[in-house]
Structure prediction request, 91 residues.
Amino acid sequence: MDEADLLARSIRGDPAAWERLVSAYAGVMFAVVERCLRTARRTEAEDVVQAVFLKLWEDDRRRLRTFRGGSRLGTWLVAIARREALDGRRK
Prediction:
């Protein structure tokens, strides 16, 4: 399954596609968030990544539908995770 198909199926609510999307991108998102937070507490970074995925899934995947393809999906997801981490650090 290519990236576009994975995204389209995830947007339609396909749980198997969503699981593949999460599995494919969670690791790199976690690494970026961990660096942004500069924390040794793994749970903080995990919480941020989980919050990003939850926001993307909720409300009939409204936020996930905003991806326009101007970059790779992974790049877009990492940018969202980084913003979420920085916003959380500011609070």
DSSP finds four helices and no strands in the chain. The CA atoms of residues 22 and 53 lie 8 Å apart. The mean pLDDT is 93.
